[in-house]
Amino acid sequence: MGLLKNLALSSILLSGSAVAADWSNTSISLLSGTDYVNPFGEDYDQTIITFEHVSGWTYGDNFFFVDVEKADTKDDQSMYLEWNPRFSYNKIMGQQSDGLVADFGIAAQINIPVGFRRIYLYGFYVDLKIPGFNFFQSHFYVRDDLSVEGTGFQVTLVWGLNIIDKLSFGGFLDYAGEEGDDTGKKEANLLMQPQLLYQVTKEIALGVEFQYWDPKLAVKDADTEQVPQAMIRWTL
User: Which segment of the chain is annotated as a signal peptide (predicted)?
Assistant: First the structure.
């Protein structure tokens, strides 16, 4: 599948996810970095185009993104998708929360690395009201990676805050436990992508995203990936 087809598919999926939303935000980001870790071969440089969409609806919210990746060691692009729907206790019950817990409810997620086996996650979430943060979300999942036997767990944190006027700090952290058996195993691993962005205009932000993955792809004895990525984001 070529780059243009990947971009067209991403646009269609993002447009469809915005239907009947109470609110939504959609953006396109361009990221570029060097020395990404390849546990199975030589390291590589890479450019990534990310389509990202978040929206709220009557009973919860949705988060969805598509990465179209082009490594300098490959002729073709690769594609990766995630969809994270959540069902809100507050919205379903028609109430507001006071205090530390802003909301909680049921959460699910599907990870789709195109051409490889999918990963399904299901569990619950708790959103917290932390002073200074625009939002702070915690998710607790059962993780079912179809490429290995059995299930594991994953904890995901997502946050966003304004440091000063026009300068924001956000990102996510995933910690996944060991999964699989002697015939195939994924090691416990930590992936995080904090971002520091400066809002140049209402639509355009510039900054850096730091990708940390230990061990890369949950492969035993793989090197730790630590890659700063130049980033530009366009909010539609």
Answer: 1-20
Whether residue 164 is predicted with pLDDT greater than 70 in this model: the reply is yes
pLDDT at residue 12 in the model = 44
- Whether 20 shows a pLDDT value over 90: the answer reads no
Assessment of whether the complete model's pTM goes beyond 0.70:
yes
Provide φ and ψ at 11, rounded to 5°. -65, -40
**191 and 185 in contact (C-beta within 8 Å)?**
no
**Residue pair 215/189 in contact by the 8 Å Cβ criterion:** yes
Pair 129, 101: CB distance under 8 Å = yes
* End-to-end Cα, the chain, rounded Å: 25
Domain count, the chain: 1
As a whole number of angstroms, the distance between CA 167 and CA 44 comes to 30
Residue 168 belongs to a domain with what CATH number? 2.40.230.20
Run of H or E residues at 9 = helix 3-17
At 39 the pLDDT is 92
Considering only CA atoms, which of 171, 236, 183 is closest in space to residue 210? Answer: 171
